[in-house]
Amino acid sequence: MKIDPVNILKDHSLKHTRQRVRVLEEIAMDAVAISQPELEKKLGKEIDRVTLYRILNTYEDKGILHRVMDLNGTANYAICSPACSEHHHHDEHVHFNCTNCQKIYCLDVLIPAIKMPKGFKASAINTMAYGICEKCSAGMKAD
Ligand SMILES: [Zn+2]
Ligand SMILES: [Zn+2]
């Protein structure tokens, strides 16, 4: 998926600052979700923690990013696909947490509609699969 940070900011009527663009660039760099500590490490010299935190919150509110908690309870961020923001759902696809490399993948697998009991209104549903990712299982076979 090709990401144009400046366009994304424009689409969500956010002013584009250098720092906001940098955060999007870092998150879009890889197909896997990036953890908050990893982001802090990569952007620490340019953006202080408080600002980074604020930017991530804004992006989450706007539906630009979605947050996924991994096995260790660390926040990871991934860019929402255009389909994702169209439906105003933040987590309608399955996530995969590799227990070997710890990476989180956004899978192109939709969560089927889940019927809630009467009186319950779900605003988000989080489905996480755990196991060995494609890359790690390929590496294991080679050994
Ligand atoms: Zn893996
Ligand atoms: Zn995702």
Q: What count of domains describes the coordinates?
A: 1
Examine the secondary-structure arrangement and name the CATH architecture. Answer: Orthogonal Bundle
Unreliable stretches covering 5 or more consecutive residues: none
CATH superfamily annotation: Winged helix-like DNA-binding domain superfamily/Winged helix DNA-binding domain
- The secondary-structure element order is HHEHHEEHEEEH
Taking the alpha carbons of the first and last residues, their distance comes to 31 Å
CATH fold descriptor: Arc Repressor Mutant, subunit A
Measured by DSSP, the beta-strand proportion falls in 15-25%
Mean pLDDT comes to 87
Give the count of helical stretches. 6
Q: List the ions, cofactors and other small molecules found in this model.
A: zinc ion
Query: Which shape, going by the Cα principal axes?
Result: globular
- Which CATH class? Mainly Alpha
Q: Count the beta strands.
A: 6
Radius of gyration from the alpha-carbon trace, in angstroms = 16 Å
Strand arrangement in the largest pleated sheet: 1-3-2
Most strands sheet: 3 strands, antiparallel
GO molecular function, one term: transcription cis-regulatory region binding
GO biological process, one term: regulation of secondary metabolite biosynthetic process
Keywords: Iron, Metal-binding, Zinc
Pfam families: FUR (PF01475)
